[in-house]
Amino acid sequence: MTPYPSLPSSHNGLKAFEVAARLMSFTLAADELNVTQSAISRQIKQLEDELNASLIIRKHRAIELTVQGHDLYVALRESYGNIESVIASWSEPKQKRIVIKATLSFATRVLISKVRELNERYPDYEIVIVPVIEEDEAINSSEYDLLIFHTRFKKRYDNAPDITFLREEFMAPVCSTNLTHSASSTNKDTDLDSILTMPRLHPTLDHHDWKVWLADVEFPPKKPVRNTSFLSLDMALSACLSGEGVTVTDLLLVLQDLQRGFLYCPKNAKIQNSAWTYFIHQRTHSPVINDLIDWLKIETEKEIELLKALSHQNHWSGVICDQQ
């Protein structure tokens, strides 16, 4: 059984009617379809007979649509327009894309700030940035050209095919500069000890980043402090920027905020590596993607050098100062 039982058996009559109704002339319709005027009139009459409906009122030198004719013309105009758009799209050149998937914090804190540079570097491509949360699961998908992920299983990916090491994490406590101004109203300087007595913000329930960082502090504070967990580094950093407390984070993710004075890392703070490492997985092999990987590595090296300079200015110590 046909799914369109009301449609006429021949579509020639529909096409002849659509052209005649659009141009409101049998003569012009015949010219457009390259047939005779009598052929147009005959096809439309056959259509009316098959539909058992009057579509056109024939006058001496003009035609007029009936109510049913007008309704049918509107439906045909929309349908033919949609079909034309679909078929025309087949011949349109598809815009090339570079799809970059990245761990959520890297996508929002690093890649977004590089969109203009990416567009200028690859003007013939649309840049698509997709944040991911489960990076180890994302690496098994196929919907990207490049995946920037961080993992605690460094040995699993060292020397693995299509995997490129990007960088370590450089962890230290940071807080809003506005929060330090408030604390400085009673203290001449907001030193490390003062920072460590402020409320602590955590991106995980296990408070892992803080525990690891405090384990290497020579004299950790003994006074209890308020803890708030967000289950997301981006939320913890947003709360930090809002002046809600202090969080331990990867300084390269907040490098611009440190440079602009929005965030503060106390003088003499110690910078540590975390258990997490950033890697790049290359799924698409092409000169453009090879160039993108090289560019990301160069950009990362520049950021590390900027962090070294800030470390020198603020007397930070630890792993960043030990790198050559």
From TrEMBL:
It comes from the Bacteria. One of its GO terms (biological process) is DNA-templated transcription. GO terms for molecular function: DNA-binding transcription factor activity; sequence-specific DNA binding. PROSITE patterns: HTH_LYSR (PS50931). Keywords: DNA-binding, Transcription, Transcription regulation. Gene3D superfamilies: Periplasmic binding protein-like II, Winged helix-like DNA-binding domain superfamily/Winged helix DNA-binding domain. InterPro entries: LysR-type_TF_proteobact-type (IPR058163), LysR_HTH_N (IPR000847), LysR_subst-bd (IPR005119), WH-like_DNA-bd_sf (IPR036388), WH_DNA-bd_sf (IPR036390). Residues 12-66 form the HTH lysR-type domain. Pfam families: HTH_1, LysR_substrate. Belongs to the LysR transcriptional regulatory family. This is LysR family transcriptional regulator.
